[in-house]
Design a protein that fits this description.
Length: 104
Amino acid sequence: MTSVRIQQAASRRLDDIFRFTRTHWGQKQAERYLQGLFDSFELIQSHGVVSRPIPAEFGVTGYCYRYQRHVVYWKHLADGDIGIVTILHERMHQIERLRSDFGL
């Protein structure tokens, strides 16, 4: 059975998203938004979210999909699990942050 594993950079981003959402829209909205993100992670394997390859100019191998105002970046791990590498807001400079979160 394939598992979804949250990588270190993604974990930090989830914390940031939660804090920002809680500050601006309240605790319940922050909880709903994060639950929606986690629900979307579980849909990757069954193709319940439409993922596309990360564009070549980013210089990393993996996939991405949009969840509301964020882009979720993920990859297949060596053991067959799915690794959530990072989650970036649509307004963030994607290439620079993505390379950093992929460890490049």
